[in-house]
Every structure is written in C-alpha cells, then in structure tokens.
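Most newcomers find our protein records easier to grasp once they have seen one. Read left to right, the backbone structure tokens trace the chain's path through space. Nothing more is needed to start thinking about how sequence determines fold. An example says more than a description, so a record of this kind follows:
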Amino acid sequence: MPLSDMLAESKIFAKREVLSPHFTPPKLLYREGEINNIEKALAPSLKGERGRNLFIYGKTGTGKTSCTKYVIEEVKNLPNTRAKICYINCRIYNSRFRVLNKIIGDHLPTYAKRGYGAVDLYEKLTSWIEEDSKILVVVLDEIDLVKDLDDLVYTLTRINSDIRAGGVTLIGISNKVSFKDELDPRSLSTLYETELVFAPYYATELYAILKDRVAVGFRKSIVNDDVLHFVAALAAKEGGDARFSLKILTRAGEMAEEHERTEVSMKEAQEAAKMAENEIVYEVISTLPEHQKLVLYAISMLTQSGGSYKKLTDGVDTYLFSGEVYHRYKSLTEGMRKEAKSERWYRKYLSELEMQGLIASFESGKGIRGHTKLIKLLYPPKKMCDVLEKEIFGNERKERPPDPLV
C-alpha cells in the first residue's frame, strides 16, 4: 500500500484508539460492582486514614486495570484530598529500586535524578509522607513481575511502622491468584489486605462491550451483528477476554482496509481470530514467572525431540510423563546455576500453565504402570522453544546453557 494511501483518512476506522486495550471508556459496562469495591477500599485513604491494602485478581482482559485507572481518574478530580496516587506498570518498573525511583520521580522529580540508592529513596519518601500526613496509594499493575517482590512489599509496608503520621496503601493487580504463595512469611505478615476477583466476561457482556466500542471506533455500518456475535462468543470461549475480542476486531478492520472493502466480513474476522490467538499466547508467555517459563520450556523441548524414552504418542498428539518433565526442568536450572523448585511448586506451575491454556494434563489410565500425570503441549513446540529461548536466555541462542539430557 503506497504511503499516500496509508496517510489518507480511513474508510473503516473512525477513532481507532477507542479499540485499544489501553483506552478507558467513560463508562465501564458490567463492572459497576467492582468499581464500587475499589472505591470502598480507597475511601479511608481519601479521608487521610490508613486503609487496607487491596489485591485485585483476574484473567487477562477482565477489566482489572481499566477499572483501577477509572477510579484513579475519579480521585484526581476530588478536591482537598490528602491521598497521592502513583500508578506503576511493573512490566517496566520490575524491581524495588525502580518502583521507589518511579514514586519519587512522580512526586519529587528533582530528587529522583540525583542518583541515590534505595535506602536514600526510602528515607526521602518517608519524610515526604510524614511532613503533612499524606496517604500514598501505590498501584502496582502486574505486581507478580517484580523480581524482588518480597523486598518491595516489605519496604513499602514497613513505611507505616517507621512514620508517626500519614501512611502507605498498596493496590496490587495480578493475573495470578497464587502469586502471594511465593512471598516470604515476613512479607506476608505485613500485609493487611482485601482481595477482589474479577470474573471473566460472558458472551452477552462481551457483545455489548464490543458494540459500544464499535459505535465510536468504526465508521457506520462497517461491522455487522453477526461478526460481533462471532467475536464475542469466541472470546468468551477463550476465557472471557475483552482485550482478545478487541484485538480480533482491530485486526479484522485492518485486513478489510488492506483489501479495500467497505465492511468487515466474517472471513476476515475468522482469519484475524487465528492471528490474534497466537499473539495472545506469546504475550502470556512473556508474563510467566521465570520458573514457569523453564517448566514450559522443558515441556516444549521434550515434545520437539524425537527419542524420549517416556514420551507417548497416539499418532496425532504427544504426551509426556510428569516425572520426566520435572527431571528436564531440574537439568535446565542446574545449567543456569539456579536452584530448582520443589515438586510441590512444580505441580502448582503445571496447574498455572494449564489455567493459561498452554498445556493440558491427564491422569494416566490402564496400561501404564503406577499412577502419574500425562502432559500435552497445546501449541507448536518449535515456535514455543524459539519464543521461550528469547524470553529466558535473551536473543542470542548461544547463551543457552548445555543440557546434559539432550
């Protein structure tokens, strides 16, 4: 497509940014109750009191971030509140130092540029809070991606013990309900939290959300109801993910534009769905904790290799014995000079990977000695290996440690 055509006014899209998952609409459909619960949790802080910490859970695309940002915007418009809010994307600010520096940078920018260490930032932060009894609300989106999460949680909650006035309230947002299980008991003991779980959207809810966005994001009569129902039903089947449905619609619109069509057809929606599904999978992989990535890498390697003595196949699918996967996972951690997690944690990782739709597992039946779990990878193993190698070892494949079992 010539550059002049790319710069011309779109005949498909009216306001493309409305279809972005980062766009917060003026009204969030089917999330009134969740918004109200976030407001209730923040109410003490807005009155200058120390509130309970809040942890928000839910699958990707269930509105956790949008609802939290919606409430943050409400707070910004309130007059005379002592609360200061700092929203932090932990995919970017993924360590205690980076989070502390981000908080200081948002509220004391000249101090943040002086190259101080974490201890200095902590002392400056506590004195800033204490000077006029501020309540600092720290929103940690994708909190489970923080590398030294124990240190961060302990540091931020410790502030409340070290100051005479004011306080810190945490709001943590995560796709993983079990992420707190990995926190040290010392960190857990400092948390006095409320939990809020966002349920997946139903197909009827996704249809209404899409119709609302399409009315603004696309030109009139570009997307018909059949396409909307198809996308909504597919996204509901894939876990009630609104982001997934918006990604499909956007991609379908782009394909219609490339083909110079006057509407989005069902064929384009179906093709866009296949492409979006692959993109979502690889986005999910990037959010996994390191040891879950290593377990998934072990599964992908074993599925791809041809001579594994405990690999089963029915001619179509490949099944792996759980014990062999754990053995390969341990060999990988040894090659990286890391300590492997226990079998209890390994079983929990398998459950998380299955919840994310990356693997399937089955209890072994008759004909197999003993009682074990069989594991099947749900995506092409070579592609998974390539993606995971970049995620775990960086872009250079030569950095991959030797595996004694290969």
Q: What stands out?
A: The domain at 32-198 is CATH 3.40.50.300 (Rossmann fold). The beta strands are 53-58, 83-89, 135-141, 167-174, 193-198, 311-313, 318-321, 359-363, 373-377.
